Amino acid sequence: MQETPKESKLAKVSPKTRKVFEFIESSKSPLGAYDLLNDQNLRAIGFKAPTQIYRALKQLLDLRLIHKVESLNAFVACCKEHEKGPSILAICDNCGQVQDIPAEDLAAQVKREVGKKFPGLKELNIELKGVCEDCTSEDSEVQAATVS
Ligand SMILES: [Zn+2]
Ligand SMILES: [Zn+2]
Fold first, then answer.
1. How many domains, the chain?
2. Ligand of minimum distance to the alpha carbon of 91
3. Which has the closest alpha carbon to 18: 51, 50, 66?
4. CB atoms < 10 A from the CB of 115, how many?
5. What pTM value is reported for the model?
6. Domain termination residue (choose one: 39, 61, 78)
7. CA of residue 146 relative to chain centroid, distance
8. Residues 141 and 86 in one domain
């Protein structure tokens, strides 16, 4: 069987770092370093100091298994639908979920717009605030219920 990119990336990290990834992946909302540090399961396998958590996070970020949500100072698992290039992180004000939406075309456009003014562009973080699809449809159901 062929390994998925995610599995081959996870094969490069220690079992402990893998647990950090699994915890972030299983969470519905983004997790901060202190959420990780306070997690009993991670403590039980030996994560005790912030530096250990930061080291694991850095490794996962470098492998693009997770993304940092800069405005929340928190981390989400990558949707795995983009191997490289940036994505749009859409943050729902209502439920707090963050969606990872690949945006490779947008990156090319930003590079064109920025052009010579900022040729050293290395990183592009796009974060959106608003309401996600689930929360929008819940709202419309509520409205429909009150009407009928
Ligand atoms: Zn991603
Ligand atoms: Zn939502």
1. 2
2. 2
3. 66
4. 10
5. 0.85
6. 78
7. 36
8. yes
59 and 26: one domain? yes
Distance from Cα 40 to the centre of ligand 1, integer Å: 27
Q: pLDDT by residue (tens digit) across 74-119?
A: 999 999 888 877 899 999 999 999 999 999 888 889 989 998 899 8
The DSSP letter of residue 46 is T
pLDDT score, position 25: 96
For residues 115 and 121, give the distance between their C-alpha atoms in angstroms, rounded to a whole number.
Answer: 9
Ligand closest in space to the Cα of 102: 1
Taking a 5 Å cut-off on Cβ, the residues next to ion ligand 1 are: 78-79, 87, 100
Q: Are residues 85 and 118 in the same domain?
A: yes
Which domain range does residue 134 map to?
81-148
CATH code at position 74: 1.10.10.10
Note the pLDDT tens digit of each residue in 63-79. Answer: 999 999 999 999 999 99
Residues 70 and 87 in one domain: no
At residue 148 the predicted structure's pLDDT band, cuts being 50, 70 and 90, is very low
Cα 145 to ligand 1 centroid, rounded to whole Å: 36
In the three-class reduction of DSSP (H, G, I as helix; E, B as strand; rest coil), residue 130 is classed as strand
CA of 129 to the centre of ligand 2 (A): 10
Is the domain of 89 the same as that of 141? yes
User: From the CA atom positions of the chain, what is the Rg in Å?
Assistant: 18
Distance 143 CA to ligand 1 centre (A): 34
pLDDT score recorded for residue 55: 97
69 and 58 together in one domain: yes
